[in-house]
């Protein structure tokens, strides 16, 4: 490292942290990533990557590798919870419709494959596992980071990419900004062959019904598995310490009693009866303090109903990398970090809000309100296209340069 290189410490090697490290490297800045876990293992779940994120990965040359591990859904389909009728549908892979409309692909991918692609691209030299941040001390032109292992590091900038229960955010805002949404989820990955009643197994589909919905899409290069995510209202209060709790084996099945066999088959075929509390972060007034800033779930944890938590974390990462890369040690970084917040806050708040509204829409009982909702879902590209068409680099170019 040269004396005039900025020392950047990223806390958290999740999707946001690793994306930031790669985006910085693309701009000639070497960051260090500190992750509490002793190894990078993602629990069995998948993620949908949309064009607003994949266009950034395409610039890094990662898109072919992601494509090899991912499945592109044939269509986006909304279905009635009980009779399975198609309420609305939009082509995705068919006719290459999604890429034509949004300029980059849509992938369903196992999180482990995404994280492996990112961490392999980053390498191990600057990835420090088993490093849980416990405290920070602000000095005049730097920050001292303290880890459980006793390790101490000094950095010019600290980026908290440490997730929805971020310790760095508590340091920035002085409060615990996590809010339980009053909804919870069951999720699983099931072999497609175990789902004989499922129509269109290679589509991304929402099954919408009273007080619940189920979303699924295929993953694996050939779509050999289906990842599902089934959301229910309640419990009204989350009684557990973390976000995940074991439940009685029959709870997921009971929650979807009377639903279409494709839904109940999927839930029965999943292995572990675990319930996820869905938590969000209340809109923050500030994303940074001095030389410390947050991004991703730490800044704007949201409900997953627009499939945008990871995608907006990736957008954040590429925006922050572009803004920070021109700075030097000793520079006043507050204007840079304030600019990052200004660039990102309105958009991420709008998506947080839209995800919350979508949750209620997906849970309407049959009736006039559900029919209005169905008409809205038929206008998906018009009503929600703004989320997918976003281009971080264009937004950066449209805003005035900061340094030099
Ligand atoms: C059920 C579910 C389904 C979802 N589906 C989608 C989807 O389809 N598409 C989508 O875009 N998003 C989805 N999301 C949201 C997405 O998973 C998150 O928004 C995304 O992972 C956020 O990335 P992140 O890097 O900010 O945080 P995380 O991925 O949570 O990473 C944070 C990292 O920081 C580490 N860490 C925490 N504290 C410390 C510390 N003190 N010291 C060191 N390391 C620390 C953690 O171990 C972790 O590795 C879903 C979320 C859920 C719950």
Q: Can you put this structure into words, describing what you see?
A:
The protein is an alpha/beta fold and 404 residues long. Helix content is 35%, strand content 25%. It has 14 helices and 19 strands. An 8-stranded mixed β-sheet has the order 5-4-13-14-15-12-17-16, with helices on both faces. A 6-stranded mixed β-sheet has the order 7-2-1-11-19-18, sandwiched between helices. Strands 8-9-10 form a 3-stranded antiparallel β-sheet, with no helix packed on it. Strand 9 and strand 10 form a beta hairpin. It is globular. The relative contact order is 0.17. The site of flavin-adenine dinucleotide (FAD) has 33 residues, from helix 1, strand 3, strand 12, helix 9 and helix 10.
Q: How are the SSEs placed, and which strands pair?
A:
Blueprint: E1 8-11, H1 15-26, E2 31-34, E3 46-49, H2 51-59, H3 63-69, E4 75-80, E5 86-91, H4 97-102, E6 107-110, H5 111-122, E7 127-128, E8 133-138, E9 143-147, E10 152-155, E11 157-160, H6 167-173, E12 178-191, E13 204-209, E14 212-219, E15 225-233, E16 244-246, H7 251-255, H8 261-269, E17 274-281, E18 288-289, E19 292-294, H9 297-300, H10 309-324, H11 334-362, H12 368-378, H13 380-388, H14 392-398
Parallel strand pairs: 1-2, 1-11, 2-7, 4-13, 11-19
Antiparallel strand pairs: 3-6, 4-5, 8-9, 9-10, 12-15, 12-17, 13-14, 14-15, 16-17, 18-19
Helix pairs in contact: 1-5, 1-10, 2-10, 10-11
The site of flavin-adenine dinucleotide has 33 residues, from helix 1, strand 3, strand 12, helix 9 and helix 10.
């Amino acid at each position: 490292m040269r004396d005039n290189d900025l020392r950047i410490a990223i806390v958290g090697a999740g999707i946001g942290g690793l994306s930031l490290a790669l985006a910085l490297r693309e701009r000639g800045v070497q960051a260090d990533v500190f992750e509490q876990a002793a190894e990078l293992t993602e629990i069995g779940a998948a993620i949908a990557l949309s064009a607003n994120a994949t266009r950034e990965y395409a610039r890094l040359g990662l898109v072919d590798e992601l494509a090899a591990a991912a499945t592109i859904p044939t269509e986006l389909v909304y279905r009635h919870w009980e009779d399975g009728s198609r309420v609305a549908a939009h082509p995705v892979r068919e006719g290459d419709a999604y890429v034509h409309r949004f300029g980059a692909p849509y992938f369903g991918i196992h999180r482990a494959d995404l994280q492996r692609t990112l961490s392999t691209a980053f390498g191990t030299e600057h990835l420090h596992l088993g490093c849980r941040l416990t405290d920070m001390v602000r000095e005049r032109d730097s920050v001292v980071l303290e880890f459980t292992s006793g390790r101490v590091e000094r950095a010019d900038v600290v980026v908290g990419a440490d997730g929805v229960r971020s310790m760095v955010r508590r340091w920035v805002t002085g409060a615990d900004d996590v809010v339980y949404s009053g909804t919870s989820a069951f999720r699983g990955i099931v072999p497609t062959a175990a789902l004989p009643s499922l129509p269109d197994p290679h589509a991304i589909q929402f099954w919408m019904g009273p007080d619940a919905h189920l979303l699924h899409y295929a993953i694996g290069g050939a779509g050999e598995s289906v990842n599902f995510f089934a959301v229910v209202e309640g419990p009204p209060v989350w009684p557990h310490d973390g976000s995940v709790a074991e439940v009685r084996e029959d709870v997921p099945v009971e929650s979807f009693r009377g639903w279409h066999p494709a839904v109940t088959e999927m839930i029965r075929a999943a292995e572990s009866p675990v319930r996820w509390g869905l938590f969000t972060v209340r809109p923050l007034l500030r994303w940074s303090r001095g030389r410390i800033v947050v991004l991703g779930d730490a800044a704007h944890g949201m409900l997953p109903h627009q499939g945008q938590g990871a995608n907006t974390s990736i957008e954040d990462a590429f925006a922050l990398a572009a803004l920070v890369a021109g700075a030097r040690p000793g520079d006043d970084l507050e204007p840079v970090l304030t600019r990052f917040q200004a660039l990102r806050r309105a958009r991420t708040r709008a998506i947080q809000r839209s995800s919350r509204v979508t949750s209620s829409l997906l849970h309407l009982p049959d009736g006039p309100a559900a029919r209005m909702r169905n008409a809205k879902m038929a206008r998906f590209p018009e009503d929600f296209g703004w989320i997918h068409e976003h281009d971080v680099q264009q937004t950066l170019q449209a805003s005035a340069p900061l340094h030099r």
